[in-house]
Amino acid sequence: MRHGIQRIGVRLLMLVALCLLGGLLSASLVRFSPGYGVDERELDPRLSPATVEAIRNSHRLNSGLLSYYGHYLAGAVHGDFGSSEWLQRPISSLIKERLPVTGRSVLMGVLVAWVVALAISLATVFFRGYLLDISGTLVSGVLIALPAAVVAIFSVYLRTPVFLAIALVTFPKLFRYLRNLLAHAYAQPYILAAQARGIGQARILFHHVLPLAAPALFALLGVSLSMAFGAAIPIEALCDSPGVGQLAWQAALNRDLPLIMNLTLLVTIITVAANSFANVASERSL
Amino acid sequence: MSSRLKNLALIALLAFALPVRAQTGGELHFCLHGEPKTFNPVLVDDEPSENIRYLTGGVLIRLNRQTQALDPALATSWKVSRDRRTITFHLRKGIYFSDGTPFSSEDVAYTMRLLMDPETHSTTGDAFRSGEGAVQVRAPGPDIVVITFPAPIAGLERLFDQVAILSAHSPKKEMAVLGPFYVADYKAGSYVLLQKNQNYWKHDAQGHALPYIDSVRLDIQRNRDIELLRFRRGELQLINRLDAEQFDRLQQENPVVTKNAGTGLDAEELWFNQVPAAPLPEYKKAWFRTKGFRKAISMAINRADLCRIVYAGYAKPAYGPVSPSNQFWFNKSLEDPKYDPQAALRLLAQAGFRYENESLKDRAGNRVEFTVVTNSGNAAREKIATMIQQDLTQVGIKVNVVTLDFPSLIERITRTFDYDACILGLVNTDLDPNGQMNVWLSSSENHQWNPSQKAPATSWEAEIDKLMREQAAAATEKERKAKFDRVQQIAAEQQPFIYLINKDVLLAVSPSVIGAVPVVLNPPGFWNVETLRLGPAPELGVQK
Asked: Do B126 and A36 touch (CB under 8 A)?
């Protein structure tokens, strides 16, 4: 028991360290990208020198990277995540507005991708038809070669909801893995024995195949969640869906250091959490 | 009257009444091209917020976008003192904000104080800053306001078109407005919904309350292609700015919906880096400082081709800092920019350059080659750069084109000065030359070719400085015009900015929008929103 708690503790610490490192790295990338600290408004001839100076000062506040990072962490501990330089609003409220939109699209997308991938994989394994197998592999092969941005453009022209685009990006990766997993499970000798004894297909699936594949399936669920979240950024940016992805894209274009910093942390936390969920789940079912 | 006759009369009445009813109310639907940064009219400095300010804000004086004259709005009359420092407004009586708070001179005073507070850093307020010192605002009566500025301001009245009056007392603060609409709902990243302000003061000639439309839905849509797609599907009724390529495509599909308001105020221009401290070889700096070199480049650029190829004919060659559509301030005596590569070569020869084996060399034998930077993602500018590259090969000059994302570009042209030449567009929102003050003063940061000079580097820059200051203090518009005409003439002789083209203002308006009269001034499509009506939506007749 004590050993278990210790292990969880160590793992949690590692997660926190990983998130912080991710945040610092992304902050450095933004800080040292060309054009950091300049503002389009500086070119506006209507502004007085005092106003331009005020704009520049607001950027200078964050220019020392380590001191900024320190201030940020101190504030974050007290629940203050700072303000966006570009939209001049508290970051917590910006994320609160947009996270539900992305959350909904990602969850729906992952759900659709899983249902379709599972259905086709089961069908290919059950019926063992070459035609089904080849067409499934072909479709997923084509889809896996499509960048998320291209899928997003199709989705704009066909006016499909954002979650379908996310599902389309997630599906091929899921399908290939699921099909192999199930084919492998069905090839086990004891499954063949069970089939030879005339046990019903449903019983074989739910009592013998799925429990065996469960750890891998949970791991896959975690990975697919983080994959879908990653795909949501270009898709939302292109489809103009008002979620975190669109915000991240705009923040990067506007060199908005505090906002980028928070969004990267958020994405890191979600990815790391999804992956550790996968790890923990797979370990527990063993 | 027999019952049959009565029925007939009723039918006739309905037949007449229906079209009228169909033309009031309804929702106008179009797009903002970015997130509005603020709903506080004093803090507005981006286009989406500016559009919302135009639709919701009540101003003392309104610039009529069509006639370019000033119309009384919340002020029934105004008077500017002889020294052009003081303006006295007489306000309309019995007016209420959208939330029912009464409007008085106190609100105007409150707004002006907030606007001019140095801590506010208001772009709108900056336009009023003519000299050191505080602005005095007095409200001697509920409907009289007297504002005194520390120094004379040229074109003072016109600036009030941008000042939306805030309420000094309303608990709703900046959300209480005096314009035709108020912000009823806003979903970040998605849309802004404006509802008709029931307390709006204006009525039409028949006494009907304005605006006719009940609400305006503004979708936040950065992607212009999606915007066009949605317009073609009939989901949007208006596109405020189309690029030439989109306009051309739409024109072929459905010429009824495309509207060309004419040549706009914005110009695209090329300039050479003349900053003495720039990290460039000395011989290059010497080229860029040579008047003959700049004039020759200007002559070697085929502007007519730029208009025809880059803008599908929806642009005009630019003459100078003022677009020909700025009726009062444009200097009509300026010569057309000529395209003449042979004359350009002669000018270059006079300036000491040699043309040998199809390449141009300076006195010291350096090959004339430079890099033009512009912002990436602007297809038109990238095409302009490529065409200039081709044009200049005729005079033996090698041009390299580099596109940079906007922040990197701004860093180069304002901080490191590590560039040879740059193509950018100058956005002109103001008709008055005072709006360009910071571009022409050699001490200013927006004097792009050589910013923030301690003392004017050349005699012609010194003359421009003097003329710009004099026009701002001149007593009559005629005197101001004479001074600014001279500035335009110097700009044409010296070519510090090589003006290339003025784009046409291109729009798409659905036939269901009745009363739309597109203009070149902002906002081109809905400047007369209060008198727009929505009719039945006829089939657009384009791809669904």
From this structure: no
Helix (H, G, I), strand (E, B) or coil at A82: coil
pLDDT digits (tens, 9 = 90+) for A29-78: 777 877 777 888 888 888 888 888 888 887 776 667 777 778 788 888 88
d(CA B16, CA B35): 43
Cβ A128 vs Cβ A195: under 8 Å: no
- Candidates B182, B222, B201, B217; CA nearest to B96 is B201
Spell out the domains of chain A, with CATH numbers in brackets.
84-285 (1.10.3720.10)
Which element (helix H / strand E) includes B80? strand B75-80
**How many angstroms separate the CA atoms of A55 and B123, rounded?**
12
Give me the helix-helix angle, B291-300 and B282-289, nearest 10°. Answer: 70
Say if the Cβ atoms of A47 and B429 lie within 8 Å: no
Phi-psi region of B515 (alpha: psi -120 to 50; beta: other; left: phi over 0): left
Paired residues of B225 in beta bridges: none
Q: Which residues of B touch A29 (CB under 8 A)?
A: none
Q: Which chain A residues are Cβ-neighbours of B135 within 8 angstroms?
A: none
Q: Which of A254, A35, A41, A57 is nearest to B445 (CA)?
A: A41
Q: Is A39 in contact with B430 (Cβ distance < 8 A)?
A: no
CA angle B18, B22, B23 (to 5 degrees): 120
H or E stretch at B74: none
Which one, of B377, B363, B386, B378, lies nearest residue B301 by Cα? B386
Quote the minimal CA–CA distance from A193 to chain B in Å: 57
Is this prediction's ipTM beyond 0.85?
Answer: no
Q: Which of A46, A85, A93, A240 to mutate to test the interface with B (most CBs of B within 10 A)?
A: A46
Q: Which of residues 43-72 of B touch A (CB under 8 A)?
A: 45
Q: Which residues of B touch A42 (CB under 8 A)?
A: 410, 414, 445
Q: What does the DSSP assignment read for B339-406?
A: --HHHHHHHHHHTT-EEETTEEE-TT--B-EEEEEEETT-HHHHHHHHHHHHHHHTTT-EEEEEEE-H
For residue B219, what are the β-bridge partners? B31, B191
pLDDT digits (tens, 9 = 90+) for A88-135: 788 988 898 899 999 999 999 999 999 999 988 888 887 777 787 788
